[in-house]
Amino acid sequence: MTVESDPRSIAESFQVDGSLVDCRPYGHGHIHQTYLTSFQVCGRICRYILQRINSSVFADPPAMMDNITRVTSHIRHKLQQAGCKDIQRLALTVVPAKDGLPYYVDGNGHFWRMYVYIENAITVEVPQDCSQIYQAAKAFGQFIRQLVDLPVPRLHQTIPLFHDGPTRLRQLKDALSADRLNRAMAAKEEIEFILEHQAILLWPADLLQKGILQTQITHNDTKINNVLLDATSGQGLCVIDLDTVMDGLWIYDLGDILRTTCTTACEDEQDLTKVKVDLERYRAAVEGFLKGADGMIDCRQYQYIPLSGRFMALIMATRFLTDFLAGDMYFKVSRPNHNLDRCRCQCRLVQSMLQHAGQIEGIVDGLGY
Ligand code: ADP
Ligand code: GN1
Ligand code: MG
After folding, report:
1. Mind listing the pLDDT tens digit for each residue in 93-149?
2. CB neighbours of 44 closer than 8 A, spacing ≥ 6?
3. Which of 118, 148, 182 is the last residue of a domain?
4. Kind and range of the H or E element at 236?
């Protein structure tokens, strides 16, 4: 039996000064094991985020860390050129391991990494108001703009076909035909809903193939808790969780921030009556993202904005359902049927987006282009 590595001793394998005084689980991410660590240095406390990388999800952690190192250096350089102050809080800083690599491999072959903890910042799971939504979406929009001139070579594809609708649909169908745990019965309505609405999943890949949409570097995981907001001013501070930064479509990034902010319900809300689009929230996400992207998105493509939210909500419904059927192997779960609840919630959100399609188009028409 393998003995799990103690995060406290792993923390000391990175280039940090001082002595470790605290190490505790942190955050609500679905993928990695995240810890907040505190070191005492000359009477002062310095904090760092330590993460055990989930290598079932990310097959090549060194390639992923290579992407992250390049992306964070590029952003830092741009901020320096623009004369920004407080750059340590505006871009993630990777702390190298003692051997100089941007990760550490423990005795069990697990990969770990460390970031400087950004102080006086918050992450929200459900935004309290439209201002938080606007600020978060603006930060994600700015992020894709900052990366438009990242020098070659292309970033590694850390998860191939990550947002490819046809692939996700096929994975669902495979899990459904295997139905290893006899769970399909419990998800009858959701399976029907996704299959009935599968055209929503196929649309982006089709537009990409026709050359109507082009790839650029995108974040690909722009849910609201992947951006830090300044605790004092409320402004968008720093985009985090850079594991999936790679070639993608802007509709993935706008779609995911829309999906996670256009309702007051959490992603795993069990009371489905709470899961509905709030049009003011929707508008705040669209306006923030376009403001941050600052002309990066051709206004002739604004017609795809309504599609973006529907696409990301349905692709997440599909992935949650696939994982439910496969036995909860991918997303962290904390209760029975957790992935099924998440799937239900996303299906309901798609339904509400479709019900409000006219008003959503009105928001897009009002953008003034
Ligand atoms: P996951 O991929 O599992 O979602 P994240 O990288 O998003 O992991 O980290 C989980 C949480 O930890 C984030 O939602 C955020 O609250 C917090 N976090 C991560 N990095 C930092 C950082 N550098 N400074 C402050 N908080 C952070
Ligand atoms: C995962 O890592 P985290 O929790 O920010 C997932 C996203 C999903 C999200 C749903 C690499 O994001 O794609 O949208 O859960 N990340 C990966 O909450 O699969
Ligand atoms: Mg995250």
Report:
1. 999 999 999 999 999 999 999 999 999 999 999 999 999 999 999 999 999 999 999
2. none
3. 118
4. strand 236-239
CA pair distance 351, 206, nearest whole angstrom: 22
> Does pLDDT of 262 surpass 90?
yes
What does the alpha-carbon distance between residue 78 and residue 74 come to, in Å, rounded to a whole number? Answer: 6
> Would you say residue 1 has pLDDT above 80?
no
Residue whose Cα lies nearest atom 18 of ligand 2: it is 30
Query: Residue 62, CB half-sphere, CA atoms under 13 Å: how many?
Result: 4
Q: How far is Cα 206 from Cα 195, in angstroms, rounded to an integer?
A: 17
Q: Which protein residue has the closest C-alpha to ligand 1 atom 13?
A: 27
Neighbouring CB atoms inside 10 A of 367's CB total 13
Residue with tokens 């894709």: 144
Rounded to the nearest angstrom, the distance between the alpha carbon of 223 and the centre of ligand 2 is 8
Domain C-terminal end among 83, 118, 153? 118
Q: Is the pLDDT confidence value at 159 over 80?
A: yes
* Gap from CA of 233 to ligand 3 centroid (Å): 22
Q: Are residues 149 and 100 in the same domain?
A: no
Structural domain count, the chain: 2
Q: Considering only CA atoms, which residue is closest to atom 14 of ligand 1?
A: 225
The residue whose two tokens read 């939210």 is: 309
Residues with CB under 6 A from ligand 2: 29-31, 57, 221, 223, 226, 241, 243-244, 267, 316
Kindly list the protein residues whose Cβ atom lies closer than 6 A to any atom of ligand 1: 26-27, 29-32, 34, 49, 92, 115, 117-118, 121, 123, 225-226, 228, 240-241
Question: What residue's CA is closest to ligand 2, atom 13?
Answer: 221
Residue 236 makes CB contacts below 8 A (sequence gap 6+) with: 135, 136, 138, 139, 142, 227, 228, 229, 230, 292
Determine the structural domain holding residue 103 and report its residue range: 7-118
My answer on whether 289 and 176 are in the same domain is yes
Counting atoms of ligand 2 from 1, which one is nearest the CA of 267?
18
Let me know whether 138 and 13 are in one domain: no
Residue 289: is its pLDDT beyond 70?
yes
- Tell me how far apart the alpha carbons of residues 286 and 295 are, in angstroms, rounded to a whole number: 13
pLDDT for 140: 98
